[in-house]
Specification:
mainly alpha
């Protein structure tokens, strides 16, 4: 059972990569925008966790 599930997950990931490579730049930009909107709506403050970059001074101010 686990081998079948692992194969199915691998096949779905490979198909997703294939579809992404066939997209136009406009479609990729739209997908990125919709993904960001989805994270903002459903994840709240965690949606910005991965895309944020902070400077060293901002990080050190958080701990003092």
């Amino acid at each position: 059972m686990q081998k079948k599930l692992l194969g199915l997950i691998f096949a779905a990931a490979a198909y997703g990569v294939y579809r992404y490579t066939k997209m136009t730049p406009e479609q990729k930009a739209d997908l990125k925008k919709r993904g960001g909107d989805f994270l903002d709506k459903n994840m709240g403050s965690f949606g910005n966790l991965f895309g944020q970059k902070s400077t060293v001074s901002e990080t050190s101010n958080k701990f003092s």
